[in-house]
Amino acid sequence: MKSVEELVKKIIKFRDARNWKQFHNPKDLALSLSLEASEVVEHFQWKSEKEIKEYVKTNKDEIGEELADVLYWILLISHDLNINILDTLDKKIDKNDKKYPVDKAKNKHTKYNKL
Amino acid sequence: MKSVEELVKKIIKFRDARNWKQFHNPKDLALSLSLEASEVVEHFQWKSEKEIKEYVKTNKDEIGEELADVLYWILLISHDLNINILDTLDKKIDKNDKKYPVDKAKNKHTKYNKL
Amino acid sequence: MKSVEELVKKIIKFRDARNWKQFHNPKDLALSLSLEASEVVEHFQWKSEKEIKEYVKTNKDEIGEELADVLYWILLISHDLNINILDTLDKKIDKNDKKYPVDKAKNKHTKYNKL
Amino acid sequence: MKSVEELVKKIIKFRDARNWKQFHNPKDLALSLSLEASEVVEHFQWKSEKEIKEYVKTNKDEIGEELADVLYWILLISHDLNINILDTLDKKIDKNDKKYPVDKAKNKHTKYNKL
After folding, report:
1. Which chains would you list as touching B if contact means 3+ CB atom pairs under 8 Å?
2. Of A40, A106, D54, D85, which residue is 20 to 30 A from A67 by alpha carbon distance?
3. D34 HSE (CA, 13 A, CB side)
């Protein structure tokens, strides 16, 4: 299995071969990220909980590919903006740990600012 | 720096401490992914290319945190659906390599089905 | 109650007073539309069907305002691109009528291309 | 040209003929609204300002149809939640008028909470 670093290299190589950096301004990259996220959502539109339980079993590969498309843009944007995304996520979880104290947040789906 | 596997463990530990798995059905997880992607986009709304160039320098941390929020959901959904997301991305890039042949796609932002 | 035409006039007057047309390129307008749609979605995140039933009663005004924000951008974009949106919707429903024939689509949430 | 009220009636008639109300819970309706908004955005992805200027002329009908799809969901959700969307928008513009005072907001794309 490739590491995140190796995947980023592969992504950049793919882009450079097509000379696509010229199109990759942050606004369009973010917008692409959002469009791919919508394609993940689309898999679950109109389906009941029961239908989804079945669907995720029989369509794991398709859903996986849409998630990969989102990850693709996260890694590319992070690369271009020189963000260490794994480190940032690590710290963000620590932040959330404080934003959502266990004793207040347990068993609740309330947003931190309303806890 | 933590590996993706370690981050996934940390995310699941964070969730379990709050007993939040009960809320994490695929539809709401996908929807959360999409909402966080929108927050990335929001950073670039209304800004000109020139303003964005400046903005990404002075707001790297904020943008990084939003990207981390998106990554958080990707890792969590992939975990719950038992998807190896790094492997899937690796193979997706290979697929895109064929969908966008260099000689046809070079210097063009056209979608593969219109190339 | 104002008509759609009167609302469009009011929106343009609001914009002109602030000299905001300079920011209103189609890409940012579309992106704004999408961001406001996300704010509608956010109201329903994590909530169960039962919770939502209660929520839509007690939060009708808030949800209505988010919907109005989406409508705002639809009317503004349509105005700027010189699109008669009511007429277009009228014709689109006729198109959908053919795309989703009653005998095939009844009681199904399947997309037209899979019916 | 049909009025908004007539369009709503047409939409409900279209739905009832297919017996689709059973699928129309607020979460999926909001999600559909958001997915259609993404399809509007998709038209402008990767395109430069110059390309967009040309594109909106030659693709007015396609863009109009996507906007109509968004409007469709706005009218349907508003109907189901018993929201007078035209009235709500009218009042929302008045609210925005106060949130963005002309003397502070003129020529700026700053969000109201940072003005």
Report:
1. A, C, D
2. A106
3. 36
Among left, alpha and beta (phi > 0; psi -120 to 50; other), residue B114 is alpha
Residues of A with Cβ-Cβ distance to C47 under 8 angstroms = 109
Helix (H) or strand (E) holding B96: helix B85-99
Dump the DSSP string for A89-107. Answer: HHHHHHHHHHHS-HHHHTT
In chain D, residues with a C-beta closer than 8 Å to the C-beta of C60 are 81-83
Per-position b or e across C39-53, b if 16+ CB within 10 A of its CB: bbbbbbbbbbeeebe
Of the partner residues D18, D49, D95, the one whose CB lies closest to the CB of residue C102: D18
Mention every residue, 6+ apart, whose C-beta is less than 8 A from residue C97: D14
Per-residue pLDDT tens digits of chain A, which is 115 residues long: 899 999 999 999 999 999 999 999 999 999 999 999 999 999 999 999 999 999 999 999 999 999 999 999 999 999 999 999 999 999 999 999 999 999 999 999 999 999 8
Please answer whether residues C90 and D7 qualify as being in contact, where contact means their C-beta atoms are separated by less than 8 angstroms: yes
Which residue of chain A comes nearest to D36, CA vs CA?
A38
Chain C positions touching A47 (Cβ under 8 A) are 109
- In chain A, whose CA is at the least distance from the CA of B107? A19
Q: State phi, psi for A86 to the nearest 5 degrees.
A: -65, -45
Q: Give the predicted TM-score (pTM) of the model.
A: 0.97
- Classify the complex by whether its ipTM is higher than 0.90, answering yes or no: yes
The pair of three-digit structure tokens given for residue A21, joined into one six-digit string: 């950096």
Does the beta carbon of D59 lie under 8 angstroms from any beta carbon of chain C? Answer: no
Chains in contact with chain A (at least 3 beta-carbon pairs closer than 8 A) = B, C, D
CA gap B9, C46 in Å, rounded: 22
